[in-house]
Amino acid sequence: MAKEKLIHRILGGLFDVVTSRVFTHFVWWLILFVIILLFEPEGYSMGFRVSNALLLVVFYMGLVYFNLLYLIPEYLSQKKIFRYFLLLLLALLIATPIRTLLFYLKFNPYPELQMEITNNQPEQYIASFIIVSLSTVLKIISDWLRQQRKMNKLITQNMQSELDFLRSQVNPHFLFNTLNSLYALTLKKDERAPAIVLKLSEMMRYMLYESNEPQVELKREIKYIENYLDLEKLRHGPNVEIDFELKGEVEDQKITPLLFLPFIENCFKHGVNKSLQKSYVYLKIKLEKDLIRIHLRNSIPTDLIPGDEDEMVGGIGLVNARRRLKLLYPGRHNLEIREEKEEYIVNLTLFLNN
Fold first, then answer.
1. Which of 46, 79, 163, 265 has the greatest CB tally within 10 Å of its CB?
2. Per-residue confidence (pLDDT) for residue 19, from 0 to 100
3. Which domains does the chain have, with CATH numbers?
């Protein structure tokens, strides 16, 4: 374990170095040095050619860092475009003759090279302009990428905070409804209360210790749904017909926990629980590898319990469910909720992240 931590730290340190700005600049100047060295005229000693390349790189470094550290932040970043280009051209007009003079003195033992560098003044201006312009373009691109990374990180943090908030609302919402029902049964000393407590404890174990993960095994989520439906069967008895059908193989698929619960819970809260007559909830889950199809139907109450004549569909559960799907499965889900003459229907198609 200690060796693994040491290796991890070393690799992490190497990654920090490789991705650091200093290392990046060093690599760029090294590449430019090699390119210049390759174009140095042959027939001269290696030391002479290397010193020429180094001197030229130092000259370009002066221009580039004057551009990066002064001209860009003081003028280009402040949208003073005209002043920026004016000062850039002025810097080139001053620096290029200085470069020519330095190399002219360095080439004193080689009159042919002095003649060549004197005659190649236009090419030197062009080369300096290209190098400095390239640094400007790279600076703009790097600043844009850095800003995008910051924005993406902020978006991710905000999204995660919102998801945590939405998920924190799901658990108390379900628990509140279930405990209310359990309380009513205990007041009546109903013999079904212990079985409900057992089912509820299994569900709470899942909610507390497993649903805090970003994703869980699909089989655990389905088991949770089965427990929930079993609890509702115990609570409602023969007055409510509850049918659950599972088609397809449950393998190693992963899914966001408690994603389907609000839709199922809504069937009872706004349907079964408000009805005085016999009612039903039908749930069908069809698995096709990484594709899940949910078909959910529940009866519409015709004779409402007194005091329940309010809106039948909605609430924080469905709002949260829609929002979680939008955040966690963008472009990978299709949700349809509609009201027929005698029932509510929910169709959800979900492509898993696997």
1. 265
2. 54
3. 2-151 (no CATH), 153-351 (3.30.565.10)
